[in-house]
């Protein structure tokens, strides 16, 4: 039951992030002046298995405004492109505190 709850929580988190980021992207599109600061940053992850890293990469890619570009050979660093980066450190912490944490709850005992 615990894993089922964690999976439902991960799905709900994704749906929430999907709507929030979609709204942010739409706001950027309808503004008369494009005010985005695109960039690439490195995300150091605590995820270990290929399955966990693939799931995180897919969730990032499916969220509008972000895209996983590459995974380093050590499988600990993801290179992510974001449409609007104010603070790369803050964005990394948000991903680690939401998606990464939820993935670990689903995949680990």
Automatic annotation (TrEMBL):
It is found in: Cell membrane. The keyword Membrane applies. This is Na+/H+ antiporter subunit E. InterPro entries: Cation_antiport_E. It holds the Pfam family MNHE. It comes from Paenibacillus oenotherae. It is a multi-pass membrane protein. The lineage of its organism: Bacteria, Bacillati, Bacillota, Bacilli, Bacillales. Belongs to the CPA3 antiporters (TC 2.A.63) subunit E family.
């Amino acid at each position: 039951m615990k894993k089922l709850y964690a999976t439902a929580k991960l799905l709900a988190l994704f749906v929430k992030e999907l709507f929030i980021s979609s709204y942010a992207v739409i706001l950027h599109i309808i503004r008369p002046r494009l005010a985005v600061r695109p960039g690439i940053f490195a995300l150091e992850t605590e995820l270990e298995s290929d399955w966990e890293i693939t799931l995180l990469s897919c969730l990032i890619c499916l969220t509008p405004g972000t895209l996983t570009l590459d995974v380093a050979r050590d499988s600990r660093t993801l290179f992510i492109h974001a449409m609007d980066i104010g603070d790369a450190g803050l964005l990394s912490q948000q991903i680690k505190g939401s998606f990464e944490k939820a993935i670990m709850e689903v995949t680990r005992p």
